[in-house]
Amino acid sequence: MALAIRVVLLIISLVVLDQHKGDAQELLKLQKPGLMKCKFNKIYQLGDSLSDTGNCIRESHCGANSACTRLPYGMNFFQKATGRCSNGMLIIDFIALESGLPLLNPYKLRSAKFRHGANFAVAGATALPAEIMAEKKIINSATNSSLNVQLDWMSSHFETTCSPDCPAKLKKSLFLVGEIGGNEFNYGLSQGKTMDELRRMVPDVVHTIIHGVRRVIGFGATRIIVPGNFPIGCHPIILTKFMTDNSTAYDEYHCLTDLNKFAIFYNRHLQQAIDELKKEHPNITLIYGDYYNAYLWLLQNAVTLGFDKNSLQKACCGIGGNYNFDVRKKCGAPGVQVCADPNTYISWDGVHLTQKAYSWLARWLIHDMLPKLNCHV
Fold first, then answer.
1. Residue 33: its pLDDT value, please?
2. What would the pLDDT profile of 95-139 be if each residue is shown by its tens digit?
3. Are 360 and 94 in contact (CB under 8 A)?
4. Active-site residue 145, yes or no?
5. Do the Cβ atoms of 308 and 342 come closer than 8 Å?
């Protein structure tokens, strides 16, 4: 069986190499994927645009308002837009391949086979339900498919695929609850909320995510990853909106210090809640996905990893300003150009990252999480 999986991976690698020869050395490494020792037979993903592989584009409202539905999204791997908000693959794609599994199909693709899991993430989604967002006077114009909606989809999916023996059938599955919860703050920042108002939202967001993890445990999940937030003060969209002449507002990577401090504040609350949940479920492998430090590692080693030192805070697909980003003319809009080599950029469109950045982040995360997954060879 292991040999058959390696053959499949080799075929995938060869197809990828034919499509994207520039990444040959990197993708050939997928022939010996580290996560294979965990012997996951399925992966289930909940989240937002960092992990959506095609659900948003299959929602009428979300799809109609998302640039991820058209080229240049997907241009460097799939040669078409798949709904992934990048020029190619996402972290979840690399995790699947490293586990010896095919790329996850989006749940909304009704014709898809879900033998190896399913992806329920929706670009633009929040952890908080739409009605709670409305109470906080924050508008989410992208989608109403918040975490509770995705969990309802997951529940329906399991009713038809594994009930009544889900706990037994999901023992060898990996679940990722997020990253989700970042869009509440992104929308809040863009709609004029203060940092104090956002901090007061953190307990509600964390509580909602932990409630989601409890539901996932109830389905029968035994290995669960709950990712935190990236250092949001490093993203071109945030750097553009809050640009200042005050040099003390920036850290050594030219990221906005106060925004990153907020991300740390949120991540600490999430980590604390995960630690408390672990005490309630000592037999569940529950891991915090450290997206923040993975991103900092990427910045610290960017030049060594092949990224352009002069473009670390710039969008590859964008136009104008210090960060090649204009909220009125985003990637995919007429006249907006793609950089000459996306492999030298961390940011794809000012909000999401390039395939190259995601590949390195996935590698860091897998290295960090593998010892904690309790996988026995």
1. 66
2. 999 999 999 999 999 899 899 999 999 999 999 999 999 999 999
3. no
4. no
5. no
Query: 195-219 vs 257-280: helix axis angle to the nearest 10?
Result: 30
CA 314 centroid distance within chain = 19
- Which residue in 116, 157, 235, 352 is the catalytic one? 352
Beta bridge partners of 353: 347
Identify whether the C-beta of residue 114 lies closer than 8 Å to the C-beta of residue 169: no
Q: Give CA 101 to chain center in angstroms.
A: 18
349 as an active site residue: the answer is: yes
Strand residue runs (E) in the chain: 42-46, 117-119, 173-177, 223-227, 285-289, 317-318, 337-338
Pairing, β 337-338 against β 317-318: antiparallel
Q: Which two tokens stand for residue 135?
A: 């109470």
SS3 273: helix
- Helical (H) or strand (E) element with 262: helix 257-280
DSSP three-state, residue 38: helix
Strands of the sheet containing 42-46, edge to edge, are 117-119, 42-46, 173-177, 223-227, 285-289
Give the separation between CA 95 and CA 112, rounded to whole angstroms. Answer: 20
Residue 5 tokens read as 């999986």
CA distances from 344 to 81, 300, 306, 350 (A): 21, 15, 6, 14
User: Can you give the pTM of this predicted structure?
Assistant: 0.92
- The residue from 49, 86, 145, 146 that is catalytic is 49
Closest CA to 97 of 30, 43, 7: 30
- Closest to 120 in 3D by CA, of 42, 188, 192, 39: 42
Q: Is 20 among the catalytic positions?
A: no
The backbone region for 178, taken as left when phi is positive above 0, alpha when psi lies in -120 to 50, beta otherwise, is left
Along the chain (377 residues), what's the average pLDDT of each consecutive run of 10 residues?
Answer: 45 42 42 81 98 97 94 97 98 96 96 95 97 95 96 97 92 97 96 96 98 98 98 98 97 97 98 98 97 98 97 96 96 96 98 98 96 81
- Tell me how far the alpha carbon of residue 289 is from its chain's centroid: 11
Contact 330, 73 (CB under 8 A): no
State the pLDDT at residue 375.
85
